[in-house]
Protein backbone atom coordinates (compact mmCIF):
# COMPACT_ATOMS: atom_id res chain seq x y z
CA UNK A 1 0.00 0.00 0.00
CA UNK A 2 1.34 3.44 -0.93
CA UNK A 3 1.59 5.94 1.95
CA UNK A 4 -1.13 8.59 2.04
CA UNK A 5 1.39 11.41 2.52
CA UNK A 6 4.84 12.17 1.18
CA UNK A 7 5.65 14.40 4.15
CA UNK A 8 4.35 15.02 7.66
CA UNK A 9 5.62 18.18 9.33
CA UNK A 10 5.61 18.55 13.12
CA UNK A 11 6.29 21.70 15.09
CA UNK A 12 5.11 25.18 15.90
CA UNK A 13 2.19 26.86 14.15
CA UNK A 14 1.60 30.56 14.75
CA UNK A 15 0.81 33.97 13.31
CA UNK A 16 3.64 36.40 12.57
CA UNK A 17 3.01 40.11 12.98
CA UNK A 18 5.71 41.42 10.64
CA UNK A 19 6.86 45.02 11.05
CA UNK A 20 9.22 46.42 8.41
CA UNK A 21 11.19 49.65 8.61
CA UNK A 22 10.58 50.29 12.31
CA UNK A 23 11.63 53.80 13.36
CA UNK A 24 12.84 53.76 16.99
CA UNK A 25 12.22 57.50 17.34
CA UNK A 26 8.76 58.01 18.90
CA UNK A 27 6.31 60.35 17.21
CA UNK A 28 4.43 60.85 20.49
CA UNK A 29 4.61 59.74 24.10
CA UNK A 30 3.22 56.31 23.14
CA UNK A 31 3.46 56.11 19.37
CA UNK A 32 6.00 54.85 16.81
CA UNK A 33 6.09 54.56 13.03
CA UNK A 34 7.08 51.74 10.69
CA UNK A 35 7.16 51.40 6.91
CA UNK A 36 4.61 48.59 6.93
CA UNK A 37 2.92 45.97 9.06
CA UNK A 38 1.31 42.68 8.04
CA UNK A 39 -0.10 39.47 9.49
CA UNK A 40 1.23 36.21 8.08
CA UNK A 41 0.87 32.63 9.18
CA UNK A 42 4.14 31.09 10.27
CA UNK A 43 6.02 28.67 12.42
CA UNK A 44 8.56 26.22 11.05
CA UNK A 45 6.13 23.35 10.55
CA UNK A 46 3.58 25.58 8.82
CA UNK A 47 6.15 27.17 6.52
CA UNK A 48 7.63 23.82 5.56
CA UNK A 49 4.24 22.18 5.05
CA UNK A 50 2.90 24.94 2.81
CA UNK A 51 6.09 25.05 0.76
CA UNK A 52 6.18 21.27 0.35
CA UNK A 53 2.54 21.24 -0.78
CA UNK A 54 3.19 23.99 -3.32
CA UNK A 55 6.08 21.91 -4.64
CA UNK A 56 3.69 19.05 -5.35
CA UNK A 57 4.19 16.93 -2.24
CA UNK A 58 1.23 15.27 -0.50
CA UNK A 59 1.74 17.01 2.82
CA UNK A 60 0.14 16.89 6.26
CA UNK A 61 0.89 18.82 9.44
CA UNK A 62 0.76 17.69 13.06
CA UNK A 63 0.67 20.75 15.32
CA UNK A 64 -1.33 22.42 18.09
CA UNK A 65 -3.59 25.42 17.50
CA UNK A 66 -5.94 27.35 19.72
CA UNK A 67 -9.68 27.57 19.18
CA UNK A 68 -9.27 31.21 18.21
CA UNK A 69 -9.10 33.56 15.25
CA UNK A 70 -5.36 33.10 14.86
CA UNK A 71 -5.86 29.33 14.72
CA UNK A 72 -8.55 29.75 12.06
CA UNK A 73 -6.20 31.93 10.06
CA UNK A 74 -3.45 29.31 10.13
CA UNK A 75 -5.81 26.45 9.25
CA UNK A 76 -7.36 28.35 6.35
CA UNK A 77 -3.94 29.26 4.93
CA UNK A 78 -2.75 25.66 5.14
CA UNK A 79 -5.83 24.38 3.34
CA UNK A 80 -5.50 26.97 0.58
CA UNK A 81 -2.01 25.64 -0.10
CA UNK A 82 -3.26 22.07 -0.24
CA UNK A 83 -1.94 20.90 3.14
CA UNK A 84 -3.95 18.18 4.89
CA UNK A 85 -5.06 19.61 8.26
CA UNK A 86 -6.73 16.51 9.70
CA UNK A 87 -3.86 15.92 12.16
CA UNK A 88 -4.05 19.40 13.75
CA UNK A 89 -4.90 19.31 17.46
CA UNK A 90 -6.99 22.32 18.52
CA UNK A 91 -7.64 23.37 22.12
CA UNK A 92 -9.67 26.10 23.78
CA UNK A 93 -7.22 26.08 26.70
CA UNK A 94 -4.11 27.13 24.78
CA UNK A 95 -4.09 30.17 22.46
CA UNK A 96 -2.39 30.11 19.09
CA UNK A 97 1.04 31.76 19.47
CA UNK A 98 1.53 35.18 17.87
CA UNK A 99 5.10 36.36 17.16
CA UNK A 100 6.12 39.95 16.51
CA UNK A 101 8.86 40.18 13.86
CA UNK A 102 10.97 43.29 13.24
CA UNK A 103 12.43 43.06 9.72
CA UNK A 104 15.39 45.23 8.71
CA UNK A 105 15.96 46.68 5.23
CA UNK A 106 18.44 43.90 4.38
CA UNK A 107 15.85 41.20 5.15
CA UNK A 108 17.30 40.08 8.50
CA UNK A 109 14.99 40.08 11.49
CA UNK A 110 14.45 39.83 15.24
CA UNK A 111 11.44 38.22 16.88
CA UNK A 112 9.50 38.48 20.14
CA UNK A 113 7.87 35.35 21.56
CA UNK A 114 5.60 34.93 24.56
CA UNK A 115 4.23 32.32 26.93
CA UNK A 116 1.88 30.78 24.39
CA UNK A 117 4.94 29.42 22.55
CA UNK A 118 5.58 27.13 25.54
CA UNK A 119 2.45 25.00 25.13
CA UNK A 120 3.46 21.47 26.11
CA UNK A 121 2.16 19.66 23.02
CA UNK A 122 2.89 15.91 22.94
CA UNK A 123 3.35 14.64 19.36
CA UNK A 124 4.54 11.29 20.73
CA UNK A 125 0.87 10.55 21.46
CA UNK A 126 0.05 10.69 17.73
CA UNK A 127 2.83 8.60 16.17
CA UNK A 128 0.39 6.03 14.76
CA UNK A 129 -0.14 8.40 11.83
CA UNK A 130 3.52 8.15 10.79
CA UNK A 131 2.88 4.95 8.89
CA UNK A 132 0.88 7.01 6.41
CA UNK A 133 3.96 8.99 5.29
CA UNK A 134 7.38 8.66 3.69
CA UNK A 135 9.25 11.51 5.38
CA UNK A 136 8.93 13.23 8.74
CA UNK A 137 10.17 16.79 9.19
CA UNK A 138 10.76 18.04 12.74
CA UNK A 139 10.28 21.74 12.22
CA UNK A 140 11.94 22.99 15.38
CA UNK A 141 14.40 20.67 17.11
CA UNK A 142 15.39 22.25 20.46
CA UNK A 143 12.14 24.22 20.67
CA UNK A 144 8.69 23.09 21.79
CA UNK A 145 7.58 20.40 21.40
CA UNK A 146 11.13 19.16 20.72
CA UNK A 147 12.80 20.80 23.70
CA UNK A 148 12.18 17.65 25.76
CA UNK A 149 14.66 14.81 25.19
CA UNK A 150 12.07 12.11 25.85
CA UNK A 151 9.67 13.60 23.30
CA UNK A 152 12.42 13.76 20.68
CA UNK A 153 13.41 10.15 21.36
CA UNK A 154 9.83 8.85 21.21
CA UNK A 155 9.00 10.64 17.97
CA UNK A 156 12.14 9.78 16.01
CA UNK A 157 12.10 6.17 17.27
CA UNK A 158 8.50 5.73 16.14
CA UNK A 159 9.29 7.30 12.77
CA UNK A 160 12.25 5.00 12.09
CA UNK A 161 10.31 1.93 13.25
CA UNK A 162 7.70 2.81 10.62
CA UNK A 163 10.31 3.29 7.90
CA UNK A 164 10.31 7.07 7.51
CA UNK A 165 13.18 9.34 6.58
CA UNK A 166 13.66 11.84 9.43
CA UNK A 167 14.73 15.41 8.68
CA UNK A 168 15.32 17.70 11.67
CA UNK A 169 15.40 21.45 11.26
CA UNK A 170 16.68 23.30 14.31
CA UNK A 171 16.08 26.50 16.26
CA UNK A 172 17.89 28.31 19.02
CA UNK A 173 16.26 27.65 22.41
CA UNK A 174 13.86 30.17 23.92
CA UNK A 175 12.55 28.52 27.12
CA UNK A 176 14.04 25.05 27.72
CA UNK A 177 17.70 24.44 26.91
CA UNK A 178 18.86 21.10 25.51
CA UNK A 179 22.35 20.15 24.34
CA UNK A 180 23.46 17.62 21.76
CA UNK A 181 24.51 15.38 24.63
CA UNK A 182 20.97 15.52 26.04
CA UNK A 183 19.57 14.00 22.82
CA UNK A 184 22.56 11.79 21.98
CA UNK A 185 20.36 8.67 21.85
CA UNK A 186 18.13 10.25 19.21
CA UNK A 187 20.73 11.77 16.90
CA UNK A 188 21.69 8.49 15.13
CA UNK A 189 18.02 8.15 14.13
CA UNK A 190 18.08 11.48 12.28
CA UNK A 191 18.81 11.14 8.57
CA UNK A 192 19.36 14.85 7.86
CA UNK A 193 19.86 17.77 10.25
CA UNK A 194 19.61 21.32 8.87
CA UNK A 195 20.78 24.05 11.31
CA UNK A 196 21.58 27.53 10.14
CA UNK A 197 25.06 28.89 10.83
CA UNK A 198 24.21 30.52 14.16
CA UNK A 199 22.38 27.45 15.44
CA UNK A 200 25.16 25.14 14.32
CA UNK A 201 27.80 27.17 16.14
CA UNK A 202 25.66 27.39 19.27
CA UNK A 203 25.11 23.64 19.56
CA UNK A 204 28.56 22.46 18.52
CA UNK A 205 30.85 25.18 19.85
CA UNK A 206 32.70 25.12 16.51
CA UNK A 207 33.18 27.86 13.91
CA UNK A 208 33.80 26.41 10.46
CA UNK A 209 31.25 24.35 8.51
CA UNK A 210 33.66 21.40 8.34
CA UNK A 211 34.22 21.39 12.10
CA UNK A 212 30.52 21.84 12.81
CA UNK A 213 29.49 19.01 10.48
CA UNK A 214 32.07 16.69 12.05
CA UNK A 215 30.48 17.16 15.48
CA UNK A 216 27.03 16.16 14.22
CA UNK A 217 28.43 13.21 12.29
CA UNK A 218 30.31 12.03 15.37
CA UNK A 219 27.00 12.00 17.24
CA UNK A 220 25.62 9.68 14.56
CA UNK A 221 23.60 12.04 12.36
CA UNK A 222 23.84 10.65 8.82
CA UNK A 223 23.75 13.85 6.77
CA UNK A 224 24.42 17.44 7.82
CA UNK A 225 23.33 20.60 6.01
CA UNK A 226 24.43 23.95 7.39
CA UNK A 227 22.40 26.82 5.97
CA UNK A 228 24.78 29.74 5.48
CA UNK A 229 22.32 32.43 4.39
CA UNK A 230 23.85 34.74 1.78
CA UNK A 231 26.86 32.39 1.60
CA UNK A 232 24.80 29.38 0.46
CA UNK A 233 24.91 26.02 2.21
CA UNK A 234 27.34 23.29 3.23
CA UNK A 235 26.54 19.56 3.09
CA UNK A 236 28.51 16.69 4.53
CA UNK A 237 28.07 13.00 5.22
CA UNK A 238 30.53 10.13 5.60
CA UNK A 239 31.20 9.98 1.84
CA UNK A 240 31.19 13.53 0.51
CA UNK A 241 31.03 17.24 1.24
CA UNK A 242 29.43 19.95 -0.91
CA UNK A 243 29.74 23.73 -0.58
CA UNK A 244 27.10 25.44 -2.68
CA UNK A 245 27.01 29.24 -3.13
CA UNK A 246 23.78 31.15 -2.65
CA UNK A 247 21.63 32.28 -5.53
CA UNK A 248 22.03 35.95 -6.39
CA UNK A 249 18.85 37.77 -5.51
CA UNK A 250 17.58 40.99 -3.89
CA UNK A 251 16.36 39.98 -0.43
CA UNK A 252 13.32 41.73 1.01
CA UNK A 253 12.49 39.50 3.99
CA UNK A 254 14.44 36.41 5.10
CA UNK A 255 11.59 35.12 7.28
CA UNK A 256 11.02 31.43 6.49
CA UNK A 257 13.84 31.14 3.95
CA UNK A 258 15.36 28.24 5.85
CA UNK A 259 11.98 26.51 6.06
CA UNK A 260 11.48 26.84 2.31
CA UNK A 261 14.98 25.44 1.85
CA UNK A 262 14.16 22.36 3.96
CA UNK A 263 10.89 21.76 2.10
CA UNK A 264 12.66 22.05 -1.24
CA UNK A 265 15.42 19.66 -0.21
CA UNK A 266 12.97 17.06 1.14
CA UNK A 267 10.71 17.26 -1.90
CA UNK A 268 13.54 16.72 -4.37
CA UNK A 269 14.95 13.80 -2.38
CA UNK A 270 11.51 12.21 -2.52
CA UNK A 271 11.49 12.71 -6.29
CA UNK A 272 14.73 10.72 -6.49
CA UNK A 273 17.28 13.51 -6.86
CA UNK A 274 20.80 13.14 -5.50
CA UNK A 275 22.09 15.36 -2.74
CA UNK A 276 23.75 17.90 -5.05
CA UNK A 277 20.61 18.38 -7.16
CA UNK A 278 18.39 18.56 -4.08
CA UNK A 279 20.64 21.17 -2.48
CA UNK A 280 20.63 23.30 -5.61
CA UNK A 281 16.84 23.15 -5.72
CA UNK A 282 16.60 23.93 -1.99
CA UNK A 283 18.91 26.94 -2.39
CA UNK A 284 16.58 28.31 -5.04
CA UNK A 285 13.51 27.79 -2.81
CA UNK A 286 15.16 29.71 0.01
CA UNK A 287 16.22 32.51 -2.33
CA UNK A 288 12.75 32.88 -3.86
CA UNK A 289 11.23 33.06 -0.38
CA UNK A 290 13.25 36.19 0.46
CA UNK A 291 11.80 38.20 -2.44
CA UNK A 292 8.52 38.99 -0.63
CA UNK A 293 7.35 39.70 2.91
CA UNK A 294 6.22 36.56 4.72
CA UNK A 295 7.47 33.01 4.75
CA UNK A 296 4.82 31.60 2.41
CA UNK A 297 4.32 34.46 -0.02
CA UNK A 298 6.86 34.22 -2.83
CA UNK A 299 7.17 30.48 -3.50
CA UNK A 300 4.38 29.31 -5.81
CA UNK A 301 5.26 25.99 -7.47
CA UNK A 302 7.98 23.57 -8.50
CA UNK A 303 7.79 24.95 -12.05
CA UNK A 304 8.60 28.42 -10.71
CA UNK A 305 11.70 27.06 -8.98
CA UNK A 306 12.87 25.19 -12.09
CA UNK A 307 12.44 28.34 -14.19
CA UNK A 308 14.37 30.34 -11.61
CA UNK A 309 17.20 27.82 -11.77
CA UNK A 310 17.28 27.95 -15.58
CA UNK A 311 17.43 31.73 -15.52
CA UNK A 312 20.19 31.75 -12.93
CA UNK A 313 22.37 28.96 -14.30
Brief write-up:
The protein is α/β, with parallel strands linked by helices and 313 residues long. 30% of the residues lie in helices and 22% in strands.
Characterize the structure shown:
There is one protein chain. The chain has 313 residues and is α/β, with parallel strands linked by helices. The chain has a single domain (7-24, 32-311), classed as 3-Layer(aba) Sandwich (UDP-N-acetylmuramoyl-L-alanine:D-glutamate ligase), CATH 3.40.1190.20. 30% of the residues lie in helices and 22% in strands. An eight-stranded mixed β-sheet has the order 4-1-9-10-11-12-13-14, with helices on both faces. A four-stranded mixed β-sheet has the order 3-2-7-8. Strands 5-6 form a two-stranded parallel sheet. α6 packs antiparallel against α7 and α7 (275-289) packs across α8. The longest helix is centred in the last third of the chain and has 15 residues, at 275-289. It is globular, with a radius of gyration of 18 Å. The chain starts with 6 loop residues before the first strand and ends with a helix. The mean pLDDT is 93.
Amino acid sequence: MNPEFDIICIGVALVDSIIRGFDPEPISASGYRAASGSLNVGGEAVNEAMSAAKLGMRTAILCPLGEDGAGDMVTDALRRCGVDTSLIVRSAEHPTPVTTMFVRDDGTRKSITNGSHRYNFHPENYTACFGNARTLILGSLFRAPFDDASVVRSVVTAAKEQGLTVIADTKLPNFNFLTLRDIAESLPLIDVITPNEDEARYYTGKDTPEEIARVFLNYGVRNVIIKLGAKGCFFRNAEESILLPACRIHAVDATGAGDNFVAGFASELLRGSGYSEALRFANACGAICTTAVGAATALKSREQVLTFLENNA
